[in-house]
Amino acid sequence: LPVKFDWRDKHVVTQVRNQHMCGGCWAFSVVGAVESAYARKGQPLEELSVQQVIDCSYNNYGCNGGTPSSAFTWLNKTQVKLVKDSEYPFKVQNGLCRYFSDSHPGYSIKDYSAFDFSGQEDEMAKALLNFGPLVVVVDAMSWQDYLGGIIQHHCSSGEANHAVLITGFDKTGSTPYWIVRNSWGSSWGVDGYAHVKMGGNICGIADSVSAVFV
Amino acid sequence: SGPRSRERQTAAFRESLKRHHYLNSLFPGENYTAVYGVNQFSYLLPEEFKAIYLRSKPSKYPRYPVEAPKPTSSVP
User: Closest Cα of chain A to B76: distance in Å?
Assistant: First the structure.
């Protein structure tokens, strides 16, 4: 295991986005994982449509909430092809699902995996290296006020409420941490990212972990 | 917009400042610990923030199966 790793350095992570007043974090995290999975396979790094997932993932509630697992199940079952963000842009509210012809270019998934890594965060780091950025659900209540530094307190496991994407980790310092991409714009936290202490399942970061395969 | 909303925002901001002080005061000597302060969400009450932004839930997943170490059949 390297002491420091970040998928951003491999140029397979899209820019931080802003969900604004839409409770669609679950869609942002899932779409981020699919974008990175395709880029890791040698495809150009493209922003894919979060709005398509918000509008069309029938087993979720769009901007009123949802879970990454339901979104991955939907993507896997229906083999829906995600189109580019420019073709189906984000509009900060639920809309009617737009359908595209089978011949329309897009990005579907082959499979996904989901595990509870609590107590096994070194294994989780290996999974990050092997499978790409990981979608996790965390307790982000105290993240309302986060400015920077390593989150080590003021949140708990068992009360997760926000989906994000882990892109890397850093174990070079005295406090190893996960590098977590959020969807609250780049002015929040550390250029849109949070640093969360590794080990101890801080904020429940290891409880609900999923990866996507394309 | 509107006076009621402005009052609410002011109240939320005041509460935020108190909260920042509390969050920053608990582990002052700790290395690289997180810092809390004013950002774009400081005009929201915690319940408003939760209702708007924290709209996901964890799913119950199986534990990750770590490969068990192979038994040593013969120990010299």
Answer: 30
